[in-house]
Amino acid sequence: MADDNIPSLLDIAGLIYRRRTGSLSPAEQSALETWMVADPANRALVDQLSRQDWIEESLKDLDPVALQASVARVYKALGMKTTTLRPVGRAGRIRLLSINRRFAAAAILILVAATGAYWGFFRKPRQVASPMATLVNDVPPPTGTKTTLTLAGGKTIILDSVQNGDLARQGNTQVAKLTDNQLTYQPSTEPPTAVVYNTLSTAKGGQTIVTLADGTKVWLNALSSLRYPTAFTASTRDVTLTGEAYFEVAHNAGGPFRVHAGRTTVEDIGTRFNVNAYADEPDLRTTLLQGAVRVDGRILAPGEQAAIDKTGQWHIQKDIDPDEVLAWKNGEFVFNRLDMASILRQVGRWYDVEIVDPGPVASRSFSGIISRKSNLSEVMKILERAGIRFRIEGKKMILFQ
Amino acid sequence: MNTPTLITDDTCAGRLRDGDETAFRYVMDRYFPIITMFALRIVHNRSAAEDIAEDTFIKLWQTREKSQTFQSIKAFLFITAKNACLNALRSERSMARRNTGFVAASAEEEETIDREIIRSEVWAEIHRAAAELPEKTGRVFRLAYVEGLPNREIARQLNISVNTVKTQKARAIELLREKLQGKDILPAILTLLGLLEKLNS
């Protein structure tokens, strides 16, 4: 392969870096100039590297936590000790730039990326006990769907333990498990028999996707359940949700799709929306991504979120960040100035741990992006920047100051 | 666990050749994020990019006897990662071709990758300049601009006066200016820092 040119590419990078400092010799200057005129794309690159926003631009796709895990895998493969990220000390309320994800990512990256060399220079003189010392048993990210399907007769099927293929026949509808752990309901051409209901439920750390008989696709988050008819015969399509789900509804003008969650009803008018109805969350939140929905009779516009508290009080928030709302579906935790109590509820539901005594840390807010494929300790290491300390005992995570 | 002598660009290759783990860690710290980013920009798939970066550094350690200079280490990293990216693209494409009959222009692709190498290397230089700030200045710089703490809080944490914090911040910028020496690059950093500052006020 033609790899001989790589050293010269590195030289060009050096020239770009030292350009216009006066430290380029006339020969170097003309070499760079020659390279720039050779191809408009070359000149565009130099221009781009001179633009003001290119640093953050170059960082935006890097997930600092994934990077750390990746580095750890290299050391592990070579039988070397993994360098752990040292805590920087308690920063109190962390203000990790939450104006947008890019800046947050950039900042965390700068923090995390250069462990060795960086920490040598930046370490605080006071030695802080490693958080890992308090970690007896780490909790790996959950695997499998941790999903149970309850059929009409009450028979249950553990989704992770059955083969792909047809699972059951419900009325005239065929229920099948697809290769990627998704569940699908295939109605037959024969007229549906009497309406029967199935319930899909996920445990802590579980997540599943189901395509209903009408083609509507539902993503179900951890510790949630969805009850639905196996065929849609009525003039309305009614399902019941606990926990959280994201819906991509197959539009049918003749049969509106309704989600019942607690005392709230979300009625679709052909659309994509997320409903967060966990009983331990203060608000039931419906977020509309596309199309239109009616929440208890009130119409939401795309990007709007309706939050209804336990007393029935309404609050509409506009310009919701879809990445934040759908982070769970995309395998991430995205926190945007979120209070620690809410963050810990999410963490507890995913890692199947009970959070003991958030106490005074509960009101602190935090911003950041963390992969849901991280170990619990990796998540906590990041949260420690908000000044919390913790230890894990079995299925309990105990927080202290 | 680390050998006492500091690794530098000049001593790195020799130490790596001798099987010094510290030298390997030096290269990891400097280039692992950069190689990951480089691969990500080409294959557009996070886990594929991670695999490529991981394999590249594992190979670096396995063939450490061949390292000549720091420049040759860098070249090895980019060559190895580039080839792995091309392989990843090719296998993806052979699958796509079965479906669409689509064949991409490969020479153009190589040029694009070459430009990504340049971009990555310029970024590596900036990264190094920021990491090389002296200890006290670096600490203030990091608390202020990376963690985003207000002057008062930095002063409290480091047990210094607010005025000292201000002086150290100015000094950090000044040192970065000297290190980067690039009148093109500095405004970028200042803008970034200015934005962070605004967020925290």
Structural account:
The complex is a heterodimer of chains A (401) and B (201). With 401 residues, chain A is an alpha+beta fold. Chain A has helices spanning 6-18, 26-38, 40-50, 54-59, 64-77, 101-113, 115-122, 322-325, 340-351, 376-383, and strands at 147-150, 156-158, 165-170, 173-177, 183-187, 197-202, 208-211, 217-220, 225-229, 237-248, 257-261, 264-268, 272-277, 283-290, 293-295, 298-300, 305-309, 314-317, 332-339, 354-356, 365-371, 389-393, 396-400. In chain A, helix 2 crosses helix 3 and helix 5 (64-77) packs parallel to helix 6. Chain A is globular and about 85 Å long. The longest helix of chain B is centred in the middle third of the chain and has 31 residues, at 70-100. With 201 residues, chain B is an all-alpha fold. In chain B, helix 2 (21-43) packs parallel to helix 4 and helix 6 packs across helix 8 (162-180). The radius of gyration of chain B is 21 Å and the shape is globular. At the A-B interface, helix 1, helix 3, helix 4, helix 5 and helix 6 of A face helix 2, helix 3, helix 4, helix 5 and helix 6 of B.
List key phrases describing it:
heterodimer; A: alpha+beta; three-stranded mixed sheet; 25% helix; 30% strand; B: 201 residues; mainly alpha; 9 helices
Please specify the SSE layout and strand pairing.
The complex is a heterodimer of chains A (401) and B (201).
Chain A: H1 6-18, H2 26-38, H3 40-50, H4 54-59, H5 64-77, H6 101-113, H7 115-122, E1 147-150, E2 156-158, E3 165-170, E4 173-177, E5 183-187, E6 197-202, E7 208-211, E8 217-220, E9 225-229, E10 237-248, E11 257-261, E12 264-268, E13 272-277, E14 283-290, E15 293-295, E16 298-300, E17 305-309, E18 314-317, H8 322-325, E19 332-339, H9 340-351, E20 354-356, E21 365-371, H10 376-383, E22 389-393, E23 396-400
Parallel strand pairs in A: 5-7, 10-11, 20-23
Antiparallel strand pairs in A: 1-2, 1-6, 3-4, 4-5, 6-9, 7-8, 8-10, 9-10, 10-13, 11-12, 12-15, 13-14, 14-17, 15-16, 17-18, 19-21, 22-23
Chain B: H1 9-17, H2 21-43, H3 46-62, H4 70-100, H5 106-131, H6 135-146, H7 151-158, H8 162-180, H9 185-200
Helix pairs in contact in B: 1-2, 2-3, 2-4, 2-5, 3-4, 6-8, 7-8
